[in-house]
Specification:
Radius of gyration: 23 Å
Number of domains: 2
CATH class of the largest domain: Mainly Alpha
Distance between the termini: 31 Å
Order of helices and strands: HHHHHHHHHHHEHEHH
Structural class: mainly alpha
Bound molecules: heme C
CATH architecture of the largest domain: Orthogonal Bundle
Number of strands: 2
Number of helices: 14
Helix content: 25-40%
Strand order of the largest sheet: 1-2
Length: about 375
C-alpha cells in the first residue's frame, strides 16, 4: 500500500520529465545523478504533506534521492556516531577526557586569566560565542568567527575554517599561543599544571606519575574535543523512526534541504558537512576585510576564497553565521543562498579573483519553502 502511494507521485513525474527532456534532446548520459526532487509535488508546485510523510516514514536509505551534482561525494544524513576515530598515538581514556574537560573550562590557561576555550566555544551556543569575530584574552579581537565544534571530532581534511591544522592534537595548542585567543605559551600552561594542586591527581590518573609535558596537554584537550556531540534533537528522534517528531512543515524542509535547495551537495552525513572547502563568494576580495581562506594555507589558486563547510547540527543556536559572522540570522542566510550567495569581482584578467563554487546556484525557493527549510534547520 505504502509503495503504491509513493509510486503514483514519483513515477508519474519522473517519467513525464524524462520524456520531455528526451523529446527536446537535452537528456544525455552525462547528466547529474538521478534525484527525486519532484517527488510529492503537483505540476502546479503544491506539496502533498501526506505523500512526503509516507516517503520519509522509513530509514534514511529508503528516502527520496537527494539532488547532488555529478562528481559530488555525499553521505546520507544520520545519527551522530558515539565514537570518533582516534589516532594511534592518543587512544582515549576516561581520565584523559576528564583532564581535557577541566582544561577546556579553565581560564587559568590564558595569560591574563580572562579567557578559556569555553569563552569562545560555549556549549549553549553550539560551541560558538555569539560574536561575529572572536574575542580572546585582554579583549583582543580575531579575524574570524569561532567555529562550532561538532565537525571537529570527525574532520578528515584539517581543522579551522582554512584547514591549516592537520589534526586535533596540533589544533588545540594553537589557540593557547594565539595572541588573539589565549595569548599564552604551552610551556607556561604546562608549568602551571605542575603547580596547581587540583590538577595533580587528574594528571596522574591520565598519564601516570610523571611531570606534566606539553604534548600531554594537547592529548588531553584533543581527547575531550573528540567527545563533543550535538544535543539530542527532534531530528534524531525522527531518524530513529518516530515519524511524529517532525511536523508537516519540517518534513517539507528536510525534503527541500535534500533536493530543491541543493544543500546536500556540501552539508551531508551525520554532522552535515563534507569536511571540504568551498567558495561561497564571501572572501571580500580586494577589500579591507579580505580573507582568502584555504588559499592562505596552500597558495593554490584553486583554493582562493574557500572555507571549510561547517556542521549544521545545532545551527539555530550558532548565530551569527559564516567565517566572518556577516549574516546575523538564519533566515537571512537562507535568503542569501536562495539568491545565489555572495559575489566578488576583480580587474579583468586578474588571476587571483576567487571563483564561486559551481554548486552554488540561485534556488527559486518560494517564501513558504524558505520558512519550511528554516523550520527544519531549527529542529537540529
Ligand atoms: C578567542 C576565542 C577562542 C578561544 C579562546 C579558543 N578558540 Fe577555538 N576557535 C576560535 C576561532 C576564531 C576558530 C576559527 C579560527 C580560524 O579558522 O582561523 C576556532 C577553531 C577551533 C577549532 C576547529 C574546529 C573545526 O571544525 O575545524 C577547534 C577544535 C577549537 N577551536 C578548539 C579550541 C580549544 C580546545 C581551545 C582552548 C585551548 C580554543 N579553541 C580556544 C576561537 C577561539
Ligand atoms: C558548495 C557547497 C555548499 C552548499 C551547496 C551549501 N553550503 Fe552552506 N556552507 C558551505 C560553506 C563552505 C560554508 C562556510 C562559508 C564561509 O564561511 O565563507 C557554509 C555555511 C553555511 C551556514 C552557516 C553556518 C555557520 O555556522 O556559520 C549555514 C546556516 C548553511 N551553510 C546552510 C546551508 C543550506 C541551508 C544550504 C542549502 C540551501 C547550504 N548551506 C548549501 C558550503 C555549502
Amino acid at each position: 500500500m505504502k509503495a503504491v502511494l509513493g509510486m503514483t507521485w514519483a513515477s508519474w513525474r519522473t517519467v513525464s520529465l524524462v520524456a520531455l527532456w528526451g523529446a527536446v534532446g537535452g537528456w544525455t548520459m552525462a547528466a547529474s545523478p538521478p534525484t527525486d526532487a519532484v517527488v510529492c509535488q503537483s505540476s502546479a508546485g503544491e506539496w502533498s504533506a501526506a505523500c512526503l510523510r509516507q516517503r520519509y516514514a522509513g530509514t534514511p536509505d529508503t528516502w527520496p534521492r537527494p539532488t547532488v551534482d555529478a562528481g559530488i561525494t555525499w553521505q546520507e544524513l544520520g545519527l551522530v556516531p558515539e565514537h570518533a576515530p582516534e589516532p594511534a598515538g592518543n587512544p582515549s581514556t576516561p581520565a584523559k577526557v576528564e583532564l581535557g574537560r577541566k582544561l577546556f573550562f579553565d581560564t587559568r590557561i590564558s595569560r591574563k586569566g580572562e579567557a578559556a576555550c569555553v569563552t569562545c566555544h560555549q556549549p549553549a551556543k553550539s560551541f560558538t560565542d555569539g560574536k561575529a569575530l572572536a574575542v580572546g584574552d585582554e579583549r583582543m579581537q580575531g579575524r574570524r568567527r569561532s567555529q562550532t565544534l561538532f565537525a571537529a571530532p570527525f574532520s578528515t581534511h584539517g581543522m579551522f575554517w582554512d584547514g591549516r591544522a592537520a589534526t586535533l592534537e596540533q589544533q588545540v595548542l594553537m589557540p593557547i599561543a594565539n595572541t588573539f585567543e589565549l595569548n599564552h605559551s604551552i610551556d607556561q600552561v604546562t608549568a602551571s599544571l605542575r603547580q596547581l594542586p587540583d590538577y595533580r591527581p587528574m594528571y596522574e590518573a591520565a598519564f601516570g606519575p610523571r611531570e606534566p609535558r606539553s604534548d600531554d596537554v594537547a592529548k588531553a584537550l584533543a581527547s575531550f574535543v573528540r567527545t563533543i556531540r550535538p544535543e539530542p534533537s527532534r531530528f534524531d528522534d525522527f531518524l530513529k523512526g518516530q515519524s511524529q517528531a517532525l511536523n508537516d512543515r519540517e518534513v517539507l524542509g528536510l525534503h527541500l534541504f535534500r533536493t530543491k535547495a541543493r544543500c546536500m551537495n556540501c552539508h551531508s552525513g551525520p554532522v552535515m558537512t563534507d569536511f571540504q572547502f568551498h567558495d561561497l563568494g564571501l572572501s571580500f576580495y580586494g577589500r579591507r576585510n579580505q580573507d582568502l581562506g584555504r588559499f592562505e594555507v596552500t597558495r593554490d589558486k584553486a583554493h582562493l576564497g574557500q572555507f571549510k563547510t561547517p556542521s549544521l547540527r545545532g545551527v539555530s543556536k550558532a548565530a551569527p553565521y559564516m567565517h566572518n559572522g556577516i549574516f546575523p540570522t538564519l533566515i537571512g542566510t537562507l535568503r542569501m543562498y536562495n539568491n545565489g550567495m555572495g559575489n566578488v569581482s576583480g580587474a579583468p584578467g586578474d588571476p587571483y579573483v576567487p571563483r564561486k563554487s559551481p554548486h552554488i546556484q540561485k534556488l527559486g525557493l518560494t517564501e513558504a519553502e524558505l520558512q519550511a527549510l528554516l523550520a527544519w534547520l531549527q529542529t537540529l
